[in-house]
Amino acid sequence: MASIDKPPLGTSTVKWRFPEIHPEGRKYALIAGAIALASLFIWDFITWPLVFLTVGVAAFFRDPVRVTPQEEGLIVSPADGLVTMIERVPVPPELAGPQALGNAPLLRVSVFMSVFDVHINRTPITGTVRHVIYISGKFMNADFDKASEENERQHVLVEDRHGLRVGFTQIAGLVARRIVSFVKAGDMVVAGQRIGLIRFGSRVDVFLPEGYGCTVALGQRAIAGETILAKKGAPAATGISQ
After folding, report:
1. 202 catalytic, yes or no?
2. Which of 20, 107, 117, 169 has the fewest CB atoms within 10 Å, measured from its CB?
């Protein structure tokens, strides 16, 4: 039997690679590329700007591989972006009640995604999707606090095997015009799994259960599926901008 060569102890087999383009965005990249190609025969002076636009569209829909922590009692970030708000607020009506997050105010962590961030959203915990509630609305700047009540948004509630429920809200922004969901009520998901995307700039709010300490600070950048937003029993995090 032929022997199998193994890498020497301590040798890493992890290599950098270009992120793939999510299938949801491939058609847009192809359309932009086709227009850029056609411009060569019509208005060649705009070809290069259109080429840059094509690259930008492809980059917007990039879908990098993420490594999600597997420790119990963790809530990971559902979005890439900047932590812009950490405050205790009333639970949205769609996520309130005994079958959801209850009626008491909860700590909300808001992650703002610019057009330069990855826009694939991921589930913060492993469990069963209990609710997916879409609400049409306005398209004001997602960084405004009132965007959580007036913008187009989608609420998702996930419950783990111990009965812990975590709710989060995808909020469309000034440029974002569509929230795309990859899951539905009843689906089983694992922490860090892709659950949807928001096109072209937006925000995700996560409502932390009681007993979970926020482990990120205002101004910190979060990475979907990797950054730990909260941990059971952990003290609140503080940070210094530098």
Report:
1. yes
2. 20
